């Protein structure tokens, strides 16, 4: 063993590296050729069947090479992502300038597309003048624009409670300065808040069949700057490019967007109104493979208001345990439950992760405080390190206010929203919509009856022009373009007026 | 052109994909063989010369393939990162269990190493009992531990001002609730704050030679949850794995840590006390290549207190313009300047990015509010989208307080710190340390004289046991293990006592 041997091996490495470059180049050219034909024949760019075939073939070959199937799967996913990216770029370019000659590899690579292909990209084409609407945020922006032009709009598109945070929070704000709560804190959050959260989690979700509280340890709790960053931090800590997650649709789009951003692949399990938004456990299982790292749940669900029966939740947890994948449960609507709700903490499964937030329960959206619970010490360690790397800590004044909020009673919030939901449901019954009566959360997800012959985007636009803003169903999954989501975050009189406007608009269609 | 042709091309793709997998497997095996020899010969894992040779070779070959040099460079960097990762894993495994048989590829890939090899990993081995210290945060944690055991420690290791935020902020906190500043905001920050920041940036940094203010447009300003997240967001928006940044050392480690996290490579330009911490422009130029995306500056500098002469800054800006790379200027210490300081906004270069924060100027570390300015609309667009994806927005109560803070006068803060710095310098002159008298910031970076025969970590440990905490130089760059950083964030009497403790400890060595 000597330095000469190192040099010899390095020469071999140079040669192999060059061969890899050459093959990647060939693969890119093939992807472009296929893309051109897909454009001519107007075929979908993403072809799940072809992807699956390629993956099976490579995994078979990898066995002969003694390669780890997870590693091989990730590399193949990366190469597929790259091909999809190139083909999407071609299609956009062709759409923008059909007479242009095809781009060279260089041009494709000089534009920074990996982020452009993220769903958030759709915002860019949003012109409020043309009301080019694709998501609830587009509706919100369009509504704001119309208001600036003197129109009156009833906001039933966004999920921000209209009531104020508890008065305990007001007192908290007034004491931040004199109590010197103005410093950097531990990246996982201040201990008094994590202590209080442990008790709170135990109280709200730790209730098991025998009426015992689950004991929650503050060392398993992390305070995050909002629920959304909780997802971002979890994905950053767990996922590598080429990994996969499973999402049950319809769904709040944050999980899919964050996975896309990180180069991870989302596999979807679609639920429907006909089956009362219940996911099929076999379908979930069929979407889990060697590269799956996380199954994402969100119950009470945004947008459907579904709460899973305990049995279904248990069978999903059993599947996660069997497959050794993380079970991320976004429970930010757990305060708004109109039937029994069981939290993921009850399973005491090491790889289950509870995500919750102060935003909806305490009407503290603007404070940006969320929290996570996990029994996996390695994950907790990574999350702390990630928060320290990305943003040091959650603002101490906000943590102090969150601590005060935990002293308040939030039952009234739940009661108010439930009454509003009943109001919306009663109005909807007289209109050509079908819907599931929500078990929880703050929304009604209503299916546009077929005889109306209008999709969600057209209907949302028509409603907006009639003074009421609602969210298009397709913002929660591509298969839900015959749904609208009606939010109950305005007071009763406005809801009544909003529902009247919907009725009027439907009559005019 | 038909679907049959697509299938035919897909078969070719399968074959090529399989060849790529096989070659990557061979490359991994070679990397492991080289790693084993490096371990036996105790050679450094990272060999910049060998990396450079490989890259030059591949770039030459790429010309024949008509491949984009930037694309090729990125792929090669990725393959190199992978090899380094494997070799580091081998070395750790060998150190932990020297009798173990070498790991298989599978085992290496099953452990999630990409994050473990980040510098923050060093925290994990930190045991406060053994005072295993590697960075100023380790010192802080060790000091906290000693305090919990009844020891008294003077904290001269961290950069958190000891004074309170301006009283305007106290009033702001008291009005958050009644003014309903408790909501989601635009991801780029509320307009009143961006308006006020535009004026403020213009006032503090837009002063050009002819006494004119640079006009700053609020659409070029983004509010971030702290300066650290500003860096994280910029890197997330600009860097892809395999890209490169240039950092001038010694440096606050956030840039290097964030780049590592994102799979980007940092090239270092080292400055030294002998040359008054002035970087050599030719050395900077030599570190810029096809894959370089950002040159990172931090003046007034943490830890040295250096402010660059205007001419040097101009030549760096000229270089950035010539090479078409971003120039990121972290100016969080700009309120603490004891000679003329020129901001990067004066260059009106599209790719320059100003980073600043409320933390140091207004003693608002715990509020986590920072801000960015850039003339590049594409970057601003990406930053907005990234913040919307990762965390929705900065807490509105904190933005409201930041707005109030801008009404305050911060000259006194600067005066207080300058007096403390003089105090530290006067004490240090009587001790076996060499140092540059700071032009700005809140620290003195002192070189341990050779005859003391002690490195930074040993000295920091000895000082801590004597009741004074300072930061080791090696936390700001591997070449600065003969320096300590003394922070001035405690009141004068404590600084005097801390410097006495340092003197006593040195006498005992």
Helices, strands, pairings?
The structure is a homodimer of 509-residue chains.
Chain A: H1 3-41, H2 48-65, H3 69-96, H4 105-110, H5 113-116, H6 136-148, E1 154-155, H7 167-175, H8 191-205, E2 221-224, H9 227-238, E3 244-249, H10 254-261, E4 265-270, H11 281-287, E5 292-297, H12 310-323, E6 326-330, E7 352-357, E8 370-374, H13 377-391, H14 396-405, H15 411-429, E9 433-435, E10 443-448, H16 456-465, E11 468-469, E12 471-472, E13 483-487, H17 492-508
Parallel strand pairs in A: 1-11, 3-4, 3-5, 5-6, 6-7
Antiparallel strand pairs in A: 2-8, 7-8, 9-10, 10-13, 12-13
Please explain how this structure is put together:
- The structure is a homodimer of 509-residue chains.
- Residues 101-129 of chain A have low confidence and may be disordered.
- In chain A, strands 2-8-7-6-5-3-4 form a 7-stranded mixed β-sheet, with helices on both faces.
- In chain A, helix 12 links the parallel strand 5 and strand 6.
- Helix content of chain A is 48%, strand content 11%.
- The N and C termini of chain A lie far apart (82 Å).
- The first copy, chain A, is globular and about 80 Å long.
- Chain A has 3 domains: 17-117, Chorismate mutase (Chorismate Mutase Domain, subunit A, Up-down Bundle); 126-162 and 411-508, Alpha-Beta Complex (Aspartate Aminotransferase, domain 1), CATH 3.90.1150.10; 180-405, 3-Layer(aba) Sandwich (Aspartate Aminotransferase, domain 2), CATH 3.40.640.
- Chain A is built from 17 helices and 13 strands.
- Chain A is of the alpha/beta class and 509 residues long.
- The interface between A and B is large, with 110 and 109 residues.
């Amino acid at each position: 063993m000597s330095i000469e041997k190192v040099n010899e091996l390095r020469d071999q490495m140079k040669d192999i590296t060059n061969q890899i470059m050459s093959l990647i180049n060939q693969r890119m050219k093939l992807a472009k050729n296929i893309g051109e034909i897909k454009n001519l024949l107007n075929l979908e760019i993403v072809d799940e069947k072809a992807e699956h075939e390629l993956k099976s073939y490579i995994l078979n070959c990898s066995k002969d090479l003694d390669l780890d199937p997870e590693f091989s799967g990730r590399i193949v996913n990366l190469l597929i992502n790259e091909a999809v990216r190139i083909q999407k770029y071609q299609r956009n370019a062709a759409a923008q300038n059909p007479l242009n000659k095809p781009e060279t590899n260089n041009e494709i690579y000089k534009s920074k597309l990996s982020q452009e292909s993220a769903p958030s990209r759709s915002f860019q084409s949003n012109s409020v003048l043309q009301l080019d609407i694709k998501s609830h945020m587009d509706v919100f922006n369009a509504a704001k624009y119309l208001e600036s032009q003197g129109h009156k709009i009833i906001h039933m598109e966004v999920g921000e409670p209209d009531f104020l945070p508890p008065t305990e929070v007001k007192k908290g704000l007034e004491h931040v300065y004199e109590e010197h709560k103005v410093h950097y804190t531990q990246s996982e959050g201040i201990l008094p808040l994590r202590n209080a959260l442990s008790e709170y989690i135990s109280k709200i979700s730790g209730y098991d069949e025998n009426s015992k509280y689950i004991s929650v340890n503050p060392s398993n709790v992390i305070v995050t700057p909002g629920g959304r960053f909780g997802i971002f931090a979890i994905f950053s800590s767990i996922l590598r490019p080429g990994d996969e997650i499973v999402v049950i649709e319809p769904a709040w789009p944050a999980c899919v967007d964050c996975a896309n951003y990180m180069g991870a692949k989302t596999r979807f399990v679609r639920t429907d109104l006909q089956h009362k938004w219940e996911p099929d456990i076999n379908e979930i299982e069929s979407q889990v493979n060697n590269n799956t790292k996380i199954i994402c749940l969100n119950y009470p669900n945004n947008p459907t208001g579904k709460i899973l029966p305990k049995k279904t939740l248990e069978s999903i947890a059993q599947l996660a345990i069997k497959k050794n994948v993380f079970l991320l449960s976004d429970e930010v609507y757990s305060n708004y439950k109109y039937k029994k709700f069981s939290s993921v903490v009850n399973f005491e499964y090491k790889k289950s992760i509870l995500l919750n937030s102060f935003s909806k329960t305490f009407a503290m959206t603007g404070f940006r405080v969320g929290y996570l619970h996990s029994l996996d010490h390695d994950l907790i360690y990574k999350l702390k390190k990630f928060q320290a790397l990305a943003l040091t800590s959650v603002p101490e004044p906000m943590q102090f206010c969150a601590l005060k909020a935990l002293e308040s009673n939030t039952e009234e919030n739940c009661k108010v929203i439930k009454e509003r939901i009943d109001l919306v449901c009663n109005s909807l019954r007289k209109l050509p919509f079908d819907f599931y009566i929500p078990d929880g959360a703050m929304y009604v997800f209503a299916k546009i009856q077929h005889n109306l012959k209008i999709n969600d985007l057209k209907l949302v636009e028509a409603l907006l022009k009639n003074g009421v803003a609602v969210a298009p169903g397709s913002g929660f999954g591509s298969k839900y373009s015959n749904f609208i989501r009606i939010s109950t975050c305005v007071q009763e009189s406005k809801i009544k007026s909003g529902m009247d406007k919907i009725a009027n608009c439907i009559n005019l269609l």
